[in-house]
Amino acid sequence: MSTQIFVNLPVKQLDRSVAFFTQLGYSFHPQFTDENGTCMIVSDTIFVMLLAEPFFQTFTKKALCDATRATETILCLSQDSRSQVDEIVAKAVAAGAKTPSAAQDHGWMYQHGFEDLDGHLWEFAYVDLSAMPQS
């Protein structure tokens, strides 16, 4: 079995977060969905657990980070083309996300991202290893 990753993110309003990510084209695992959280399917090996803040808090004694005021992490996902990067960011903005910075084009790597409804930072990158500068 391949290694899988389950990223856990606290969300203020679960239904609102599900609606947002649905607009970006993601689906959710019904067996892992209830009023406390849901399992967003990114790929066969990548999942994001969107957990209502009170439920998320049961997993840690630490205070939750307010991602609208402080950066906790940046989640970066690869895409197959520059146009796919632009497409997902455009969908996110149309669904209510903010873009904290402009797209970055390094020639061999193109990236852009958004801040979701809870302030979590998402980056999407297209990397062309054949165009990567040789050291």
TrEMBL record:
SUPFAM superfamilies: Glyoxalase/Bleomycin resistance protein/Dihydroxybiphenyl dioxygenase (SSF54593). InterPro entries: Glyas_Bleomycin-R_OHBP_Dase (IPR029068), Glyoxy/Ble-like_N (IPR053863). It comes from the Bacteria. Residues 5-42 form the Glyoxalase/Bleomycin resistance-like N-terminal domain. PANTHER family: BLR2408 PROTEIN, BLR2520 PROTEIN. This is VOC family protein. It comes from Lysobacter cavernae. The lineage of its organism: Bacteria, Pseudomonadati, Pseudomonadota, Gammaproteobacteria, Lysobacterales.
